Amino acid sequence: MSEHSKIEWTDHTFNPWEGCQKVGPGCDHCYAETRNARFGGGQVVNWGPGAPRRRTSPANWRKPLAWNRNAGVFYALHRRRQRVFCASLADVFDNAVSAQWRFDLLRLIVETPNLDWLLLTKRIGNAAEMLEQAMRALTVGREGWRDNYLPNVWIGATICNQEEADRDIPKLLAVPARVRFLSIEPLLGPVDLTAVSYVASPGYFGDALQWHHQPHCSRHKRYPAVNWVIAGGESGAGARPMHPDWARSLRDQCAAAGVPFLFKQWGEWLGAGQDGNHDHDPIELNASDAPVRVGKKAAGRLLDGVQHDGFPEITA
């Protein structure tokens, strides 16, 4: 359980519990499952249908309280709030997890208002109902999530292809949150976010990146739908290559809509049209332009010579 995360888009990683189950093609080579087996003596103890989820220690649960106490020092140094990626080794909205555990997590989030909590899920269809249930328990039935969503919670959905985008982005946009974001990693095919149509009430329509009033109200006034897009290729054993044009397309879609874009990594493979890590020696590609497996560090995270580190603008 990493306290200070090496993930490019967060400061801390907090796992309230560990364990999950594969739900789509992006899960095929799950690093968390591999880690679970390594620490389980070769047995995938907390993974798969019927496997128990393991709640982490009380000491681990106290770490966010310390981060929250030090938030002022962090803000003075970096001029922004600390971000906490919650459940890198699990899924907050996993059906196999006790509702009481989610209630305890939400209470911890309430107790740490100086932190921005990034709840990223592969089960976005569960998020609205489970958050509503936990919030009503927290407020003794008076206010649910829809009426009183927490300003320090960002809700994200993981997708890997167009099919998942079409299916899951409308579910994400239906969940009230200060920030909604997408993690398109591993990117396994081209994704057109502008093709994901969405109609919001009252009188808003648009796509995954932006919506606007119906024409009779304000034809040109646009509002963000998804506030942030993260994209990246696959790393680790069995990693699949990502075509450069898939990443370029997402970059250009976000630029056109004014949505912050973060390119996390190419993954294990380097192919024609990719930059590679400029700290490494140039890598000679195959004459056929087929991608070459060079490793995550050598492949780097430069997209057409640029490091994309877009973030939503959130003030203290």
Automatic annotation (TrEMBL):
Source organism, top-level taxon: Bacteria
One Pfam assignment: DUF5131
Protein name: Phage Gp37/Gp68 family protein
